[in-house]
């Protein structure tokens, strides 16, 4: 089946292995609509990259919304388990104290 709708997402994350951890955690969950949506993860430096292909714009939107929710959850868990990982990024960017 043709997948004419594509989207590449690049999400910057704090220095360290967080991008790789998130990619590994999310890649084990298959897409709910396997026939309509294809997804792949990769990491380069501190960037999480997600590539989507879908049969329709609607299917792409639904899949991407789910991905952002999952990434948000992973970052929240990382912040709870290891707050210094995200605090370091905020200090370096001048956002915090």
UniProtKB/TrEMBL annotation:
GO terms for biological process: tRNA threonylcarbamoyladenosine metabolic process. GO terms for cellular component: EKC/KEOPS complex. InterPro entries: CTAG/Pcc1 (IPR015419). It comes from the Eukaryota. Signal peptide: none annotated. Belongs to the CTAG/PCC1 family. This is Pcc1-domain-containing protein. It comes from Terfezia boudieri ATCC MYA-4762.
């Amino acid at each position: 089946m043709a997948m004419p709708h594509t989207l590449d997402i690049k999400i910057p994350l704090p220095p360290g292995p967080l991008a790789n951890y998130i990619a590994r955690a999310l890649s084990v969950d298959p897409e709910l609509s396997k026939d309509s949506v294809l997804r792949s993860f990769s990491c380069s430096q501190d960037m999480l990259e997600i590539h989507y292909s879908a049969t329709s714009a609607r299917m792409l939107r639904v899949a991407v919304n789910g991905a952002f929710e999952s990434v948000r959850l992973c970052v929240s868990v990382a912040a709870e388990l290891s707050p210094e990982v995200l605090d370091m990024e905020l200090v370096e960017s001048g956002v915090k104290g």
